[in-house]
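Fold Annotation — chain and its backbone

Encoding — discrete vocabulary of local shapes
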Amino acid sequence: MPKMDGYTATKKIKERLPKTPIIACSADVLNGEKQKSIEAGCSDYLAKPTSKEALLFMVEKHIWKTL
């Protein structure tokens, strides 16, 4: 993102909408990206490349948690 990284965006979203699920998706899996994402407030993490099925499963999983 040109003006803000994903961690900052996640923190800002969570400040206003704390129950909103955020799923991080990154190709950088070796440098603790998952842990950094969770610490920033993401609900979950998917490593790229990912499948449509994995993404849909993750979205469904977190939608059910918010109901």
User: Anything to note?
Assistant: The mean pLDDT is 92.
